[in-house]
Design goal:
The protein is an all-alpha fold. It is built from seven helices and no strands. Helices cover 78% and strands 0% of the residues. Helix 1 packs antiparallel against helix 3 and helix 1 packs parallel to helix 4. The longest helix is centred in the first third of the chain and has 24 residues. The chain starts with a helix and ends in an 8-residue tail after the last helix.
C-alpha cells in the first residue's frame, strides 16, 4: 500500500514536472525584458520560486484526491489533467509566440479551470482543494499582469523597444 501510494505521488509529480517544462522551454528572454511593465511586476527571481512551490502543491493536491477516491474521482482528475495542459499552453503563447492577446484569453480560461478543479476536488479532499487556492491567487496576479502588459505593449509586444 505504501509503495502504491509513493508511486502514485511520483506520477502526479511527473505530470507537474512535464507541465512546468513548458516554462523552461519558452523562457522570458530579451523580448520580455524589453516590454514596458507596471511598477508592481514581481521580480524575475520570484517566478521560478513561486511556480516551484505551486507545482509541488498542485501535485500533492491531485495525489490527495487519488488517495482519497481513486478511480471514483475520475471526472475531477480528468479536469485536473486538462488544467495541466491548459497551464502549459500559456508559456507557449506568451513567451513562445509572443502573443500577449492570445495568452490573455488563455489565462482567463486557466483561471476558470483552476476554480473548477478546486470545486471538483473539495468533495474528495478539502485539503486538496485548499492547496490550489494559492495557485488561483497567483494566476489571478498573472492574469492582471498579462492584461497590463497587453495594454502597455500591444498584442504582440510591439510597444517594447
Amino acid at each position: 500500500m505504501v509503495l502504491s501510494s509513493a508511486l502514485s505521488l511520483i506520477v502526479f509529480a511527473a505530470l507537474n514536472v512535464a507541465t512546468a517544462s513548458s516554462g523552461a522551454m519558452f523562457r522570458p528572454g530579451e523580448w520580455y525584458a524589453n516590454l514596458r511593465k507596471p511598477t508592481w511586476t514581481p521580480p524575475n527571481i520570484a517566478f521560478p520560486i513561486v511556480w516551484t512551490v505551486l507545482f509541488c502543491a498542485i501535485a500533492v493536491s491531485g495525489w490527495l484526491v487519488w488517495e482519497a477516491a481513486g478511480l471514483a474521482a475520475w471526472p475531477a482528475l480528468a479536469l485536473y489533467v486538462i488544467h495541466l495542459v491548459v497551464n502549459a499552453v500559456w508559456s507557449f503563447l506568451f513567451f513562445g509566440l509572443k502573443r500577449l492577446d492570445w495568452a490573455m484569453v488563455e489565462v482567463i480560461g486557466l483561471w476558470a479551470i483552476i476554480a473548477a478543479v478546486i470545486v471538483a476536488f473539495a468533495p474528495f479532499s478539502l485539503l486538496a482543494a485548499l492547496l490550489l487556492v494559492p495557485y488561483l491567487v497567483w494566476v489571478t496576479i498573472a492574469a492582471v499582469l498579462n492584461y497590463r502588459l497587453l495594454q502597455m505593449n500591444g498584442p504582440r509586444g510591439q510597444g517594447a523597444a
